[in-house]
Amino acid sequence: MTDIDAGAELDPVHPVALPVSVHGLSTAEVAERTARGQVNDVPVRSSRSLAEIVRANVLTRFNAIIGVLWLIMLFVAPFQDSLFGYVILANTGIGIVQEWRAKKTLDSLAVIGESKPTVRRDGAATAVSTSAIVLDDVIEIGPGDKAVVDGVCVEADGLEIDESLLTGEADPVVKRPGDPVMSGSFVVAGGGAFRATKVGRAAYAAQLAEEASRFTLVHSELRTGISTILKYVTWMMIPTAIGLVISQLVVKQHAFKDSVARTVGGIVPMVPEGLVLLTSVAFAIGVIRLGRKQCLVQELPAIEGLARIDTVCLDKTGTLTEGGMDVTALRLLGGADEGYVRAVLGALGESDPRPNASLKAVVDAYPAPRGWRCVESLPFSSARKYSGAGFSESDGDSSTWLLGAPDVLLAEDDPALAETGRLNEQGLRVLLLARAERELDDAEVARDVRPTALVVLEQRLRPDAADTLRYFAEQDVRAKVISGDNAVSVGAVAGKLGLSGATVDARHLPAERREMAAALDEGTVFGRVTPQQKRDMVGALQSRGHTVAMTGDGVNDVLALKDADIGVSMGSGSEATRAVAQIVLLDNSFAALPSVVAEGRRVIGNITRVATLFLVKTVYSVLLAILVVCWQVEYPFLPRHLTLLSTLTIGVPAFFLALAPNRERAKPHFVKRVMRYSIPGGVVAGVATFVTYLIARHHYTGADSLGAETSAATLTLFLISMWVLAIIARPYTWWRVALVASMGLAFVFVLIVPSLQHFFALKLVGVTMPWLAVGIAAVAAVVLEVLWRWVDRRFAV
Fold first, then answer.
1. H-helix or E-strand containing 374?
2. d(CA 71, CA 88)
3. 190: exposed, middle or buried (C-beta count within 10 Å: 0-12, 13-18, 19+)?
4. pTM
5. Of 271-285, 469-483, 485-499, 610-624, which gets the smallest average pLDDT?
6. Which residue, 164, 280, 188, is CA-closest to 536?
7. Would you name the residues annotated as active-site residues?
8. Strands 478-482 and 523-527, how do they pair?
9. Where are the transmembrane segments (predicted)?
């Protein structure tokens, strides 16, 4: 262990002695710095504030349009023509409540998953929240820990820090006392301590942590697609609405209030006002559902992203297997003495203050010998695959030992590798204990070592891993096991879990991306993968058009997690992995992944369905307005008519359809998929409704003819909209059939109850025209079926 003198340390910029103690601050010094505001108090929010939620749900473009029209209708028309405004109020309220519930869920989970750095205060190590760190705090760090503030190293024991997330430099940086420590970097090997020199907003870590944990709706194909659609809708609405206003108020010269009401009735249905609401509600409820399963969604689009994956890369240790291991055998080599070997292993275990899972098993199996003193140590690194230590033994002799991967430490023709291979084939993990002839700081310390013993470890399979892998196979998601362990051993573990496919030693993978991608497509299990290779493998898969999820819990997984389309970390994983992952499984249950995938598929598949419903209405509303302007006739509907139709054929059904289970894998090109169905559906509905309206204008005469014409047109439009709903609701289940039928019965109820007839100004007159309206709707339904099936065949994606 090396450290700066207890009374001084070096500033990384101005290397002069500064008064500080490596034992940390006193309680009084912490209080003094807190009073001065020198505290790491940047709030890490997992969600928007209540004010932001209200603002985002209320102050929207379409709420403004609807709000103005609503105010106009309150003054010029009966109450029932203003119902659409109250619907918007209810929708907005639902959106605020659901996102507030999601916020509370995320906030509570974020507290559970929050890392607590270890600081030295009053000479003792204490775990504190990140926000409680003050200037000059001495913070201890070890493998997997993330530097949460900027600082300067005061102690180092083989300390290696990865700064690639900040600098892009892949190689770990060896830190010595006096070297700067950058916030946002993480420890890959060794341990040590550093003094905080920048806290709060001055430290880059504050920005990094806030960005990593914020509840956000950005970078989502679904949200971006809906925004694009709404932009085009706005462009269509403006000229159409102007033409409608001129047609109804100027050209026809009807009573002012009636003309205004019909003008508003033409404009309001152009607005797909519930689409954004349902998208937000679907995401929010997804967060709440996953929160109940102890899944922390750090970035909201991760729900959507995981639903789009076709490849999931799994780290074996901590994902397919549990973190703990057990030593099951000790195979001596070269006539080694068992008692001496046990002493060496016990000393190696004691030499590392932060042992990994393999070394913990050794520590549990072999107690530390008396009289042995560690004089130097080499912490384990995923890149080199071994650790080591030099000892002064109880009899005064000196020795240097390495413990690590046999196929890394030994030559390819060494006979010990044959025994290792047989053990690996059984799914066992094998470590080699070897005596080194060189010093630990020698770059070739692993060369010409003397093999002494094989330590056999048994890994505990996760009981839920096999079922989860089976789920991915059924969902056509390819699983790739990527591990730093021996390829044969990893392949045997995968085989026990029912995962078939070729096993590859990653040391033989081509470095060129295209060739690597081809090899990854052919193989299933990859062993002896370095951390940088994991990152390269994720990139190679993405280059072939795959959407890749990466799971892991160790520091060696951080780079791959960061680059994957979706990173999933175990709650017990290192602080660095939790910081870069979009989803954290707080209860460490790999079995929760199917739930996340299912939520994503539910959201995307169902929003695609309901978006079609909303946009069919927008298309036929715009088309009807254009036809009315061209034919110079009264607009056939009042706002109350379209409020009734929208509620029964879109609003209520869409809410249930948006929250229904949906296992279909998400498909790309959201906007194209939705518009391919919405445009023909809206055109058919608009044309059929206008044809009915024109025929009714010739059929009915007299003072009340407009009401009869409107009722006939409403009947046609309702029946076509119901058929659109019936198509969208497929495949049918009992509740979907009941949903469609109940909406139809509700409309019939309106038609037969006199008070509701009066309220909604709907009354079918005669027999001929109503049945003709039904016939036109039936023809339109057939045309709609033919068109949509043609679209399915012509534009299959």
1. strand 373-381
2. 13
3. buried
4. 0.69
5. 271-285
6. 164
7. 315
8. parallel
9. 58-77, 83-100, 232-251, 271-290, 610-629, 641-662, 674-696, 708-728, 735-756, 768-788
